Amino acid sequence: MQKNTGNIIGQFFGGLNCYLRRCMFAILSVGPVPSHIAFIMDGNRRYAKKKNMEEGDGHKAGFNVLTSILRYCYELGVKYVTVYAFSIDNFKRKSEEVQSLMELMRKKIEELLQQESLINEYGVRLHFIGEMQLLTEPVRAAVERAMRVTAHNNQRVLLICVAYTSRQEIVHAVQECCKEKLNEVQALKEVKVTNGAFSRIDQGLNGNDFDLLSQDSCKDYLKAIKACSSEVESAARKDGLFENNVENHIGDYPEAEMTSYNGLVEITEDRKNKQDEVPFIKLADIEKNMYMAVAPDPDILIRTSGEARLSNFLLWQTSACPLYAPTALWPEIGLRHLIWAVLNFQRHYFYLEKKKKQF
After folding, report:
1. Structural domain containing residue 248
2. Residue 125 DSSP SS3
3. Which of 5, 106, 132, 315 could anchor a disulfide with 166, C-beta 3.0 to 4.6 Å?
């Protein structure tokens, strides 16, 4: 009897708490609501030490708090949430601790995919951000499965940064940009070489009444090309064009810009290209190759434990983002901290929007 009474009372206060929370969120929604909140989950190990718990238990408590914070954010109307779960620098910790964290991560990812989890309740799509090849094989398999299973969800987005640092993200983006631009340059040169050389050869072939389709073998075709090239070169030398207009200026071009077809010299790329033809790396190119390109820049960055450092997290994306650093450790963070952060965001909203437009 007492047990049933206790369950009824617990359900009553739980329902009342949920109702009051939704009322507060309705009031907050009158003002601007952040679309993206990022969290640096700092203080799990200190919390375990403070409570005389085993080190791994602090991370477990931190995951339970993460579930609550995600629910609060999604109830408020925040679409994107990013959490800093594991840095590349964390691999420098003791191997036993790293292995324990990898196993805990695998288990919690599987729990997130359960039918009754908030991932399915709110239609959350999972993105894992970072150097996935650094993770252990079981964790990497769980990550790939989680992204594949939630790929159809589009109501909310959860970005989990694992094996991540912002500097590595920037390096990766620049490397991808260089690859893209190199491919563009190579394609541009191939087009110029093809168009320039074969237009000259076609003119010569037409002048000699040469029909490629009527030849029985490629040998005749090669002879015709050689004859055509010799005629063009001889004519150019006779007119003084070869020495004056080509040979005297070959030194003005790097070797990569010259192509020779049996004595027919063709300038394949002019240094004096127009600016719009030169494939420069632009700001938009770098941003589209960022890991975080799948989400807008954060509106609020919250770091627990009172630290006001970014610790190599979203350095590129937080140039106009307010930092809120409550003294509470991550497992101690609660609804009041989130509401206070949102109120501060609303208070400075127009100033922050003005700053964003200046970038």
Report:
1. 196-275
2. strand
3. 315
Question: Is the domain of 158 the same as that of 291?
Answer: yes
Tokens encoding 314 = 């979203």
Question: Is 209 annotated in the active site?
Answer: no
333 found inside a domain: yes
Per DSSP, the three-state class of 160 is strand
Element (H, E) at 261: strand 258-261
> Same domain, yes or no, for 74 and 143?
yes
Q: Rounded to whole angstroms, what are the CA distances from 76 to 26, 35, 41, 97, 122?
A: 8, 10, 20, 35, 12
Angle, vertex CA 332, rays to CA 327 and CA 336, nearest 5: 75
Give 6-57 pLDDT, tens digit per residue.
667 767 666 788 888 889 999 999 999 999 999 999 999 999 999 999 878 9
| Dihedral sign for Cα atoms in the order 331, 334, 338, 343 | negative
Given 275, 302, 333, which residue is the final one in a domain? 275
Number of Cβ within 10 Å of residue 40's Cβ equals: 25
The pLDDT, as a whole number, for residue 192 is 61
Is residue 49 within a helix (H) or strand (E), and if so which, with residue range?
Answer: helix 44-50
For residue 237, being part of any structural domain is answered with yes
With cut-offs at 50, 70 and 90, classify the pLDDT of residue 146.
Answer: very high
Q: Which of the residues 42, 89, 220, 276 is marked catalytic?
A: 42
**How many residues in total does the chain contain?**
359
Question: How far apart are alpha carbons 201 and 266 in whole angstroms?
Answer: 11
Q: Are strands 323-324 and 36-40 parallel, antiparallel or unpaired?
A: unpaired
